[in-house]
Amino acid sequence: MTAPENSKFLLDVRNLRKYFPVRSGFFAKVAAHVKAVDDVSFAIRPGEALGLVGESGCGKTTIGRCILRLIEPDEGKLLFLDEDLMKLSRSQMRIRRRDLQIIFQDPYASLNPRMTVGKIIGEGLIIHRMGRSSELTRRVRELLEIVGLNPAYASRYPHEFSGGQRQRIGIARALALNPRLIVCDEPVSALDVSIQAQVINLLQDLQDRMNLTYLFIAHDLSVVRHFCHRIAVMYLGRIVELATSEDLHSHTLHPYTNALLSSIPVPDPTHQKQRIILEGDVPTPIHKPSGCSFHTRCPVGKDKSICREVEPSLAEEAPGHFSACHFSGQI
Amino acid sequence: MGRIWKQILKSKLAVIGIVIVTCLVLAAILAPALAPYDPFEIDLDLVIQEPPGPKPPSRAHWFGTDDLGRDLFSRVMYGARISLMVGVLAMGIATVIGVILGTLAGYYGGWVDAVITWMTDTAFAFPAALLAIGVMAIVPNPSVFWIFVVLGLIGWAGVARVIRGKILSVREEDYTEAARAVGAGDFRIICRYLLPNSIAPIMVSATIGIAGNILTEAWLSFLGLGAQPPVPSWGLMVTEGQAYLASHYWMCLFPGIAIAVTVLGWNLLGDGLRDALDPRLRDF
């Protein structure tokens, strides 16, 4: 898949930072910080699907919520069509939310059990006064059809639906306001494998039809490799590699990306696997390792003093291919 | 709602609770039609009849009569009105105050939460009996109305605490986040997302609170701090029977049974509701 050639960015995230305070003791003093998102920059072009991949706890979900300001970032810029979302007041931001929507991971938790499907989908339309009652009903039915559900479902309650159907309802809710950017926060990882493909295909189909832009968050590369134009790999609150989907697979530069790629199962029994098994657990984002935060588990830089001492910056190693490693490409 | 009913009806104890509460409500509503006598009518003929004093239960007076010849069955029946009114209305007042304060504390957090939590803790720490006696002593003529006020002042703290906890958890749900993502304001989120999903603990705490209120009304009236004669309040009737306890047990016995059974009924209903509304105990 080729990325649309348009240099103007829809969303330009610059130096985003979010630390969560860890409180302890009698007076709830701030004892430490969870560095969930630590100086992250990336940009998304209109019509593009950018994948954001990393293990649990690496900060990818926090980034998604920060972009919508569902979590207030501590620092950084969120340039949406050259307007800094961080500078908007609460009420200005509420209006801007039309353009930025989110699809949640857990389809069972993301629908209000006390509202009918029609009300859930129409909620945004009512809030932004986008249509009167008859128009609203028509639009809700239309949205249900777009996501492949029976329009008659509008009067039912969420508990009557399966996981895949609920996720479609969540997608319809996100589409209702005609957003420019949709943050997909692991939208298929809670679904059965057979349903995952359907939902992915639906998202892809919608992107083509409605010229949507996605920030697609996932915890493994297999889901995003075919879906996304570009992929950003995260480790402990930082982006370690960012490249087009093809480059990331054919010219992997960062040892962590390499390990992630090797963990994807290949449906070929004769394929000789060379799995890179990372040792140990992900270090805690409260006390990150010195230097390159990956050095404790890195097959390349484990014993190298530069990796222990100097934090590598995200550098453009090839056109459009960024990597944060002292030994980029030597894997 | 159908599912909840089915769950409640599965528990025998809850069904007993429903039956008791239903009988109580019917007795209260239909008292003027069903009561065989006027609860206020003093029958002097009966009083002077040999032996003098309260008359034991008989075919004419099922629960007997009191020292003034009034029919106890009719009085107990009318007593259900006072009891129910105090229980439900006072709980209504406490619930409204508690839900508003608990929601504000849970939703806004920060200093709003700190102030409301402090108020709640203070209300809990204050001895309820002392507050009741204090209020009743200050007001010019203690009556049933003031019982509402006292019970409301005592009762809201418990409700507020329960609601605050529930709001704290519902606030973090994905669907609440989704509502914020589509641009819903605070008021909309509270009314359409937080409160509807917190209704279960509100209903449970209100039901059990009604039982508590009925009991409190009874002892306040027993102490002479609540309903005043000749109002047929169960607590007051027990007081009136106290002098005759050794020789004419029925004056205390029947209002006492009424109090016990009513409180039991509301508690059983509350427990049944709790079990039915708790998703962890629900089998699909």
Tell me the fraction of residues in β-strands of chain B, as a range.
under 5%
Question: What's the pLDDT, averaged over the residues of chain A?
Answer: 87
Helical percentage of chain A: 25-40%
Mean pLDDT of chain B: 85
Radius of gyration of chain A: 21 Å
The share of residues in extended strands of chain A comes to: 15-25%
Query: What is the number of helices of chain B?
Result: 12
Alpha-beta classification of chain B: mainly alpha
- Which term fits the overall shape of chain A? globular
Low-pLDDT windows of residues of chain A: 1-6
What would you give as the CATH superfamily of chain B?
MetI-like
Number of domains of chain B: 1
**In terms of quaternary structure, what is this?**
heterodimer
Largest sheet of chain B: none
Bulk shape of chain B = elongated
Strand order of the largest sheet of chain A: 6-7-8-3-9-10-12-11
CATH fold-level topology of chain B: MetI-like fold
State the secondary-structure class of chain A.
Answer: alpha/beta
Low-confidence stretches of chain B: none
